[in-house]
Amino acid sequence: MASLSPSAFRILSTARWNSSKPSSSHTSSNNFFSLLRKSSSLPCCRHSNSGGTRLFSIMATAKPGNAPQQSQSRIKGAESFLRNVLASMEAVYLNRNPSAKAILELVRSVDNDKICYDHLAFRTFGTDGHGIDSLANFFLDFGYTRQEELSFPAKKLKAFWFSPPANSDAAYDGDGVHGPLPRVFISELLVDLMSPQTQDIIRKYTESSHKGKKHAALASALGSLTWEKPSHSEFVQLARESEYAAWSLVNGYAVNHVTISIHRLKSHLRNIKNLNEFIEENGYKLNSEGGVLKVSPDGLLLQSSTLADSVSFEFSDGITTTVPCSYIEFAERLVLPQFKHLPETEVKEQHRRDGFEVGNADKIFESTSKQQQTGKA
């Protein structure tokens, strides 16, 4: 343990060890080391590169005994740690985005409803290991599976989405991160396609973060940049060419948005058109890029989003101004044609449209754009 970095110990503190229960402590320790597989030669850190199997490689160090019970205990321990990290990410998001927090409370207030998250989204710089994989590795370690790639040529972006582990603990039937585990959507800016000046600015900061890319999940959970604050002129330069780049420079690995799973609500808001009307009636403006309601070509994925909140940011040159922060999205996934015959009470998440749609996501990205923000008032 002496070779671990200070950042590693900060992750360790969230694992909530219980020294009176040796088996539980051992589980937390193994889960912690799975985060540091490139920094350790311990056997528990050697695992397959297949996303869906990484979590279970942790169990390779289990001692003989009651194997089924031990395995189940380790799964629950790993999931508990994962949810603690997600809860920290969520807390940073809610503290910085009062509109999102208020909207979640509004939706909950209708028939005392529970919120389930459809997905969490993150933005990254695709250069020198700071891109999608810097965050994806954490989720892969805890049983998530990489799915389809999405390409956004006009914005010079690409993305992957990740499905949650199928064996999620059924005991988590609560609200938010304590409900069904959400999908994860991670995008990255294709830095090599940007202008030389923009590339220089981005690399100046990503290179200065040293090994910060190895602790992207920690940075997100702490709400901390892994590089120094930029100057205002550098932020403006990036914003001229890519508002995605400017957003990422000042927000880092923070959650870009959370998405409410509309069809999982119990009230009349489980219809996204009703939800959109409810949000606007309460004084919140929705992203109108391509229309308020974004619909996939197959008509089965319906999405909308608010505009990002703005926060005060002090740049390294002493200039303080507002910058876009995060927003909240809403998604309704309709039942697939082959399952239309099922009674509503028997319809599960696996019977609904899965995945993401480039056309929808491309417009959702605009929730942080200056043009949308200017018209927010």
Automatic annotation (TrEMBL):
Enzyme's top EC category: oxidoreductase
Pfam families given in the database record: HGLS
Gene3D superfamilies in the record: 3.10.180.50
EC nos: 1.13.11.93
Keyword hit for tRNA-binding: no
Presence of the UniProt keyword Ion transport in the record: no
InterPro entries: HGLS
Cofactor (UniProt): Fe(2+)
GO molecular function, one term: dioxygenase activity
Record key words, sorted: Dioxygenase, Iron, Oxidoreductase
Domain of life according to the entry: Eukaryota
Family classification: Belongs to the 2-oxoadipate dioxygenase/decarboxylase family.
Protein name as catalogued: 2-oxoadipate dioxygenase/decarboxylase
Organism: Cucurbita maxima
Gene transcribed to yield this protein: LOC111496091
